[in-house]
Amino acid sequence: MATTLDKVDVVTVGAGWTGGIIAAEAAKAGLKVVSIERGRERGTEDFLRVHDEYRYAIRYELMQDLSKETITFRNRPDQRALPMRTMGSFLLGEGLGGAGTHWNGQTWRFLPYDFEIKTMTEQKYGANKLGPDYQLQDWGITYDELEPYFDKFEYTAGISGEDKNPFAGKRSNPYPTPPMKKTPVLEKFEKATSDLGYSPFMLPSANLSEAYTNPDGQTINACMYCGFCERFGCEYGAKTSPEITVIPAARETGNYEIRFHSNVVEVLHEGGKATGVRYINWMSGEEFIQPAESVVLTSYVMNNAKLLMVSNIGEMYNPETGRGTLGKNYCYQVLPGATGFFDEQFNTFMGAGSLGMTIDDFNGDNFDHGDLDFIHGGSLSLTQTGSRPIASNPVPPDTPAWGSEFKKASIENYTRTLNVGAQGASIPHRQNYLALDPTYKDAYGVPLLQLTYNFTDQDRALHKYISEKATEIIEAMGAKQAVGRAPITDYDIVPYQTTHNTGGTIMGADPATSVVNNYLQHWDVENLFVVGAGNFAHNGGYNPTGTVGALAYRCAEGIIKYSKEGGSLV
Predict the structure, then answer these.
(1) Where are the domains of the chain?
(2) How would residue 48 be classed by pLDDT, with cut points 50, 70 and 90?
(3) Does the keyword Flavoprotein apply (predicted)?
């Protein structure tokens, strides 16, 4: 039998970036906040001498335990979905900080075009450029409306960057810290792209170029360029993450508590309002009910959608009729690009998660799509993230896959290979969606989330076009051999691609087409907020975290406003 605890003002499900931001802002406003976190407590002291590629990057020490919770996957509705038994296409975070602990730190603002993609695309190219099966929609908020929240997140995180992107939305303030070091590799990319007539700039980075103290008084250290960022916690406290910024800020108020080793299995609701959450401490087996004035889902994209589904909140999306919103508009990304093999050696074993240069000339609608059979694009970057020896074995395409020739080519090319790659935007399609699996359950007896997803003609056309542009850049950099990425066919949940899943709990201006409003307040349950990349109406040409951080600050403002006034916030 569940034990009912004392009521609090706000309960968050998860203690990562979104949960931490909500907790810090609400606690500073005097609200009592509890976060329910399925993983353990951890921090910088736990990451000392963490440079163990096998343990962290190959065996996923910091990631979700898939024996307790996973998803099932299929390409099409007529296939049987099967569980993902090991980490593949994306890496699900767990523990204090969530995926914000093991991220690379690339911190972008989505383009103004992204937030009004349906309106702007139809104005320029007419309706149905892609056909009726693609589900374009605006976000219910503009870039200009969201800009102050972008600014707040960047100053909390101390983002290092430079305002040299001619395609970016207007900024109210400069980046809080200067860009990272421009290495010889990046200078080569800068010269090649400039010679081609493009506009290169340093990538905005949460691996800080210098020590920084944020407005909450939390200090983030300067990056050491060790090359152990993605899949690792930072032993120097130099990669901005929730456990060194917003979590301490929340705790210092005295209004915040985190319950670890605790898995939320249901959002409780009655009479159109959420009353709290039910969770299980998986170490003791005890079950608890945490009542709250406001419930905030701040776990990962997949889990936010799943909790709404198993709690019977909202109307499930039906791909046949197009009705319903919950689970709709799931998007991923495509990864066009090219690899260059060089005679000269580079220090590619050194770097940082967001050390890189980018061009946005082929992102968003920054180039004309009138004669193309796709929309949007991707940011084209050369990053120097630190090539680690187990996972990095670049060889020319005609090299045998094993044996002495492979070993020789692998050693030869380890420091003689550079990659120019893009994160290609993903446009929602009616057959790509999230649902509950009818067969498989998690360790707590709750149905697993089912992912139905495949690449579309839009994805394939975008991938081909951007890969050709990447090949031109690699050739201009002086590669002796340039190899564009192979065309994509069907999506496979292995191998790793990105952790940039979006959609399923989309935001918007109309409850008929979205799950939450632009304060991330649920249309049907006014004291329930759902925040994360699941709110994105489509995926863009960037990493999502900067935009997620902005939405979290917008949501926090809404929660505080709701605590005083109640009712719908829009």
Answers:
(1) 3-565
(2) confident
(3) yes
- With contact defined as beta carbons under 8 Å apart, do 525 and 517 qualify? no
Residue 128 has pLDDT above 90, yes or no: no
Q: Residues 102, 269, 500, 522: which is the catalytic one?
A: 500
Q: How far apart are CA 348 and CA 340, in angstroms?
A: 13
Half-sphere exposure of 14 (CA within 13 A, CB side): 27
Q: Which residues, including other chains, have CB under 8 Å from residue 382's CB and lie 6 or more apart?
A: 185, 186, 189, 356, 357, 418, 419, 420, 421
- Fold that domain 3-565 belongs to in CATH: FAD/NAD(P)-binding domain (3.50.50)
Task: Answer yes or no: 500 catalytic.
Answer: yes
Phi then psi for residue 130, to 5 deg, are -95, -10
On whether the CB atoms of residues 516 and 530 are closer than 8 A, the answer is yes
CB 153 within 8 Å of CB 215: no
Q: Are 452 and 158 in contact (CB under 8 A)?
A: no
Tens of pLDDT, residue by residue over 427-440, are: 999 999 999 999 99
- pLDDT of 50 strictly over 90: no
- Look-up: residue for tokens 């031109």? 472
- Is the Cβ–Cβ distance between 507 and 520 less than 8 Å? yes
Pairwise CA distance, residues 111 & 477, whole Å: 28
Q: Which two tokens stand for residue 256?
A: 């915040």
Is the pTM higher than 0.90? The answer reads yes
Q: What is the pLDDT of residue 49?
A: 80
Using CA atoms, how far residue 432 sits from 153, 319, 393, 427, in Å, is 31, 8, 33, 10
Q: Are 452 and 74 in contact (CB under 8 A)?
A: yes
Task: For residue 270, list its beta bridge partners.
Answer: 273
Reference 80, options 321, 437, 432; nearest CA is 437
